[in-house]
Inverse folding.
């Protein structure tokens, strides 16, 4: 709650600071809507009954993770908080503190598409097929660390796809499409691996699922289906976003070329 509220307050402060300056009309309102929507989805995943029942049903736990990684994370990235922070801070603070961090080696490493894609994949698979998942069910502290890993790796994953913030994470539109296509099978295979397992992967649910009128194995199969289908469906709008952005980029380039040709022809006449 403190993290969500603090993020919302800081973002609002930056918006007010920009609004009081000469560049008040140049920050798109839709980005603020996306950011606060991301905070809302994060709140629903972590503070609503979804979180309470995630300890009782694996399928609900999977919904929680999908909301964090496939809905909240891209919305937060669409809010471009780094761009907003750079514009809201004074030139001295921006030059002395923020830009060295944004342009530093650590940021360059985390922004590398290979690193971000790999981190997303490793966190997703390792959390489901190591002791981390079962430990998280028995400890709120470990559960919180798990959620931080999910959200952080997902934010890294979505930055090259959305490509609205500065840094070396920018890749070409064909590269972004390939980036998403490569993510689809690994998420589908994870869902299929969970669905096809004939043994209960997490013993914690053996008692809790039965108390809610189902079996742990049936609940596990449902969780696998959710991972397999929902994540794939949620990647399709991302592909549409990249294709639309590609067409927009080509249209702007064509307009610039036409403008240059028109200027050249005017000079010749």
């Amino acid at each position: 709650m403190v993290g969500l509220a603090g993020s919302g307050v800081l973002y609002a402060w930056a918006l007010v600071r920009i609004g009081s300056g000469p560049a008040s009309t140049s920050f798109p309102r839709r980005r603020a809507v996306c950011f606060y929507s991301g905070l809302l989805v994060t709140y629903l995943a972590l503070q609503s009954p979804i979180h309470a029942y995630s300890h009782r049903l694996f399928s609900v736990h999977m919904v929680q993770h999908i909301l964090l990684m496939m809905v909240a994370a891209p919305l937060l990235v669409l809010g471009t908080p780094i761009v907003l922070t750079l514009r809201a801070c004074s030139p001295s603070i921006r030059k002395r503190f923020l830009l060295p961090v944004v342009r530093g080696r650590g940021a360059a490493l985390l922004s590398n598409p290979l690193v971000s894609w790999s981190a997303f994949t490793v966190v997703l698979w390792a959390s489901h097929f190591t002791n981390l998942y079962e430990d998280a069910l028995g400890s709120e502290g470990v559960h919180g660390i798990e959620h931080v890993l999910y959200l952080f790796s997902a934010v890294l994953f979505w930055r090259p796809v959305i490509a609205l913030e500065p840094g070396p994470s920018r890749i070409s539109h064909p590269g972004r499409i390939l980036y998403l296509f490569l993510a689809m099978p690994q998420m589908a295979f994870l869902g299929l691996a969970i669905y096809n397992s004939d043994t209960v992967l997490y013993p914690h649910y053996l008692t809790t699922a039965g108390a809610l009128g189902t079996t742990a194995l049936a609940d596990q199969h449902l969780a696998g289906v959710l991972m397999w289908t929902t994540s794939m469906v949620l990647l399709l709008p991302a592909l549409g976003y990249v294709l639309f952005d590609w067409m927009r980029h080509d249209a702007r380039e064509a307009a610039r070329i036409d403008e240059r040709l028109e200027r050249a022809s005017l000079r010749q006449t």
